[in-house]
């Protein structure tokens, strides 16, 4: 039981790290253009808009798939973790099981 809950937590953590790396990769990289060129072209507003859109999409995926969606990890494994924590007399396991070993 503890290995299942540990695995669910690891999956959520790795999913979150993967989405962060995608967000970092998709953000436009700064160029060596001068500030005058950026203001004249209006790219500053466009870049900020693109960065905001990417961040918003990543946040929505994190919320749906990890926290609040119908099939999110928290919705699936949250009640199980709460049940195990509340009924610790039923689930008598050595301490090493809670460390993921």
Description:
This protein is mostly helical and 101 residues long. It is 71% helix and 0% strand. It is elongated. The relative contact order is 0.15.
Short précis:
The protein has helices at 2-26, 35-41, 43-68, 73-86. The protein is an all-alpha fold. The N and C termini lie close together (12 Å).
Percent helix range? over 70%
- DSSP E strands, number: 0
Rg result: 21 Å
| Broad structural category | mainly alpha
CA-based shape: elongated
Low-confidence stretches: none
Order of helices and strands: HHHH
CA-CA gap between termini: 12 Å
Number of domains: 1
Which terms would index this structure?
single chain; 101 residues; mainly alpha; 4 helices; 71% helix; elongated
Explain the layout of strands and helices:
Blueprint: H1 2-26, H2 35-41, H3 43-68, H4 73-86
Helix pairs in contact: 1-3
């Amino acid at each position: 039981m503890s290995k299942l809950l540990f695995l669910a937590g690891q999956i959520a953590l790795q999913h979150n790290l993967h989405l962060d790396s995608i967000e970092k990769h998709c953000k436009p990289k700064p160029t060596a253009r001068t500030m005058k060129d950026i203001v004249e072209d209006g790219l500053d507003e466009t870049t900020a808009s693109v960065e905001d859109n990417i961040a918003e999409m990543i946040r929505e995926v994190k919320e749906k798939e990890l926290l609040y969606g119908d099939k999110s990890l928290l919705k699936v494994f949250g009640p199980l973790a709460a049940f195990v924590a509340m009924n610790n007399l039923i689930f008598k396991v050595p301490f090493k099981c809670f460390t993921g070993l």
